[in-house]
Amino acid sequence: MLAITAVTTFLPFSSEKHAAGRLTTAFHALLAIAALLAAGMAQAEDGYDLWLRYRPLPDTQAALYRSHATQLVLPVATPTQQATRDELLRGLGGLLGQAPSVGSAVERDGAIVVGTPASSPVVARLKLDARALGHDGYLIRQTMVDGRSVTAIVGQSDVAAMYGAFHLLRLLQTARPIDHLDVREATRMSLRVLDHWDDLDGHVERGYAGNSIWDWQKLPDWLDPRYTDYARANASIGINGAVLNNVNANAAILTPLYLDKVQALAKVFRPYGIRVYLSVKFSAPIEIGGLKTADPLEPAVQRWWRAKADEIYARIPDFGGFLVKANSEGQPGPQDYGRTHADGANMLADALAPHGGIVMWRAFVYSQTNADDRAKQAYAEFKPLDGAFRTNVLLQVKNGPIDFQPREPFNPLFGAMPKTPLMMEFQVTKEYLGFATHLVYLGPLFEEVLRADTYGKGKGSTVAKVIDGELDGHKLTGIAGVANIGTDRDWTGSDFNQANWYAYGRLAWNPQLSSRDIAEEWVRATFSNDDGFVKRVVDMMMLSREAVVDYMTPLGLHHLMGKGHHYGPAPWDASGPRADWTPVYYHRADHEGIGFDRSSTGSNAVAQYAPPVADEFNDLKKIPDAYLLWFHHEPWSYRMRSGRALWDELVVHYTQGVDDVKQMRATWQALDGQIDADRYRKAAVFLGIQEKEAQWWRDASIAYFQSLNGLPLPAGYAPPQHTLSYYESLSFPFVPGHRP
Ligand code: BDP
To answer: Which of 262, 394, 711, 740 is deepest in the core (most CB within 10 A)?
Structure first.
């Protein structure tokens, strides 16, 4: 209908004779059909456009906005300014059905004025002070220029102005009022980074959306348009860095052959404010430098890294720096030479410092030769090094003390190293949460961690305040998300996984945001502004995180996934090569009870937290149910707050998880017809897979634990669909994201 209206409006009015009139009518009809087809094709949704779809808004809404988007007044001298103009034209053109004209002077009411005081004389005259908002911050305000009303988007840098432009587009996409805007946005987080675990052969470690989007073979010549769209998507949510390669790094990335390719990508990303970083292998001086050692205190090694840094910066002047996984899971590191993590990090930091680069040194370490609780090892290793790092080093700490589980308590390093900038590491790819097909919105997980109170400096010392520098006065601050992006047409393996990329970016910009608000924004931009639709989908997303916790690892259980690939349940697995990779290490269940005793009577991991937190986790009367089996080993008959025995409570949670997925599925089914058929159908089918796998998780877990405790299921709860030996017999040698 819309398409026909559009076509007839564009057709010239015909007052020819009858025959000609008939011809014209036929011509009209043909054109209308063509337009319908074209519109149909344009409307086909395959997820590629992410949350930047810019589909036409309903006429009434568009009409309201058009009067505030009559003209674009902005400088177009730099690539960032040009990209800002292009995005606004694309966005406004798509949403409003007409793109504004572009000029350098305000000619009519309703102009959008964008720029910095230095780049735009119009902005300079406005005297709107954005300096307090920092390099990336911006303001958006309705004001007057020469007697004309304008919307001004002002920042101190081109990139800030671009962020402001994306903000305005977001308001339009989410159907927000824009007639009395007074927005002031700033971020305390200086590094908002995506970590790609991409290998040079195109494989993505823990990637469930196809191969690496970096086509190393065709780089540096062929610049896939996807690179630009990737940069646009990131800029739209404020992500300003990309680590291109896997933390399990290949030293070849530092050779001239690959640096040429990295340079080409950096050039594509630069206009969008995105810096590139590389994961480096600590033994690179040996592997590609011909040295006999990588000892960080060895002058030849130091010289090699300095020269390497110089070489990189000669190609990429705004190169961000290095990410390092050292002495972790078999990776080389300074400890190979009897040196500390600080020795290693500082050596690299010194090489980068002259160029303004930084080191993100990972705290994800644990050792198979260390008999102590794996959850304690990173703290034990790094806490004593607080204050020993150069000022351009950040310690990148995973959100929890084990490894990206559906739920973990916050990592005890947060709040415990005040002299060191700690960088959050979240996992956006769902390695332990059902891979691509499970609908799990991670916003609530991120929010739960960011809001956790470390008590590092007394009450209110939230993880968010630790990482954004507020608590300890750090200027260098950062957050990293392990990307879920691949070559799949929808980028992330499912449309709903895009929400996790989005939520990560929005929280990286402002860790205080609410995950529900973010979900709402995303649903509006991605699917529909229909309030009923939005509410139901947001409710479903908000339920999804607790659902996965329940059907996989309720009440503080963790790491019970199939070994190596982490697909599906395998709580029975006790096989090699190392104990702390086996589920039995983590649940410690036997005939009598279940749970990992990390209380003061057990491994005493609780002591790594500040006293009020330690006390809460240690005390059975205070510990939230959600963390019970993370910190305590209790008998199956242990009486829960609900009045149920622990065993019964576990079964209730497992079952609840499956029921939640059923409910999510029913919610989605009721929305059939409200969005395009393709995206609807894919999510519907994936929810079916999720339901099957949730059932599998529940049943396999119950069958196994029941084989230990011999207890009956609570009344009314269905027994597992198969025998334990059936579940144990399942094998998955070719799971994606994993190299067997
Ligand atoms: C684990 C992954 C593994 C990563 C490792 C890491 O299973 O693939 O290499 O973390 O973060 O979650 O280094």
So the answer is: 394
